[in-house]
Amino acid sequence: MNIILFENEKIPKKISIKDERGRHIIKILKLKTGDEFNCGIVNGPSGIGSITSIDQDWIHFTWEKTADSVPLYPLTLLIGYTRPISSKRILREAASLGVGEIIFTGTDTGEKSYRDSNLWKGEFHKYLMDGAQQAASTGLPEVEFYRDLQTFSKESGNYYDTDMIVLDNVESTMKLSEYKPKKRTSLLSIGSERGWSQRERKLFKLNNFVFASLGSRVLRTETASTAGITLLLARMGLL
Questions:
Q1: 88 and 37 in one domain?
Q2: Is pTM beyond 0.90 here?
């Protein structure tokens, strides 16, 4: 952790030694009374925590605000459900890279059981926190879920003024590294482990998505996600 995050409206005055953040301060950072650490409020300001005392159960500290919250990047990741271990990596890396929104959707080729994983019953939030704390950021992406791509297409209406890109090795017309963004916000769509179906490709075309690729190699979903986000943010002039 490069920042300790709290989800309350204000920073508390103590952290339990048994809390994961408390254990990190003591065992990993090896901080003592008088030492300082970065901390902040989720989607809020950040600052410096100064340890005033440590007892058997608690780390007592004061906090001073040093910066307001920094907006996440205007990039939405639309991604097919993958096996939970891959989804955890995607959540962590997307949050670390500063993606503003992550949308998970069922796909024609994806395993339906992945959509029903316990990960989506609240556990996923932990991996967003891990990514944000790694990046020393207080911002967490919004996360939404859709049954399938068609439902997303019908129910989401906030992407009209957005560059819409889908990664696909079958019908790509250009490399993502060559893409020239036309709008301020972007949406990058990445399929499940077996890619997109022809039905889904037709749906993307109907919704005016640009087809792009990361080259000729077939990548794991989490690899394509990290590479695609990084390339697109660079093309948007944000990295």
A1: no
A2: yes
Residue 159 pLDDT more than 80?
A: no
Q: Are residues 193 and 85 in the same domain?
A: yes
CA 1 to chain centroid, in Å, comes to 16
pLDDT at residue 173 greater than cutoff 90: no
Range of the domain at 31: 4-67
User: What's the domain count of the chain?
Assistant: 2
